[in-house]
Amino acid sequence: MLSLVLLWRRTQKYEVLPTNTAASRIFEVKDACLIALLVLSLLLNAILGIGWAFTPLPQQFPEASYSPAQQAIEYKQLKFHRGLADDIPIYERRRSPEVDAAWEELYAYAASRTSHSEAVKMANKTWPILGEPGNYVIALDVFHQLHCLDMIRQELFPGKLLLLHNPDISALTSSAVASHGNETRLSRTHLRHCIGAIRQALQCYADTTPVVWQWDAHFQEAIQRDDVVHTCRDFGRIQEWAKERSMGLLPDLSVYIQG
Ligand SMILES: *[C@@H]1O[C@H](CO)[C@@H](O)[C@H](O)[C@H]1NC(C)=O
Ligand SMILES: *[C@@H]1O[C@H](CO)[C@@H](O)[C@H](O)[C@H]1NC(C)=O
User: What is the pTM of this model?
Assistant: First the structure.
């Protein structure tokens, strides 16, 4: 903007100079150049401005490590639910087969297959799928984290333990499940692992959306309102990606495959 003002002032100054001299012709040429530059600058500003307004949010934050699912990342605005009064999503409702099914659906497609060319781009090595040469097993961590949160929910509200579609079923089958009387409960070790997985994910993605306080006539005080709009990765899109590459349960991981 400052450069535009300077250009304009210089153009003004040259306009008051006498005409019909060799010098003035040079100035005229200079004026024309300056005006052309000014127009060009305005045009560029307009183009860049419009471009900026329509540029979608970046697909990945720049330092993110490679994921075969990065093409599935899209952003959308989502208003969060308070989980109070009349704003309680199914996941936070009283335990029932319907509620449990909704939770399971969140991480039902955890175990995915990935190709060799994708696997070599990942920061860490993964295991080949037995009987599927060229394919490797992965699970997007979002599904692991959701599974972990569900394990904590099931521990808080005991009932039939849901182990289906478990992203780390191998850990669960042995040490993670313990019997207490006639109720199957999760082991403390597995719950500790789950709390850690969720804590680190929350810190890692460090959501900076401001939670606000607003006056509430009923409580006669300003109360916390976290039902605000967030910019979110479109979970549905990521779930679709995983569904396309889903292998249902994990493959047999007990056979050593020569790399
Ligand atoms: C994954 O790679 C990182 C970076 O090289 C390394 O620090 C970490 O220990 C690796 N983890 C596994 C499980 O391979
Ligand atoms: C075991 O299950 C029965 C029937 O569901 C119940 O009455 C009993 O209290 C349970 N025992 C324990 C130790 O939880």
Answer: 0.71
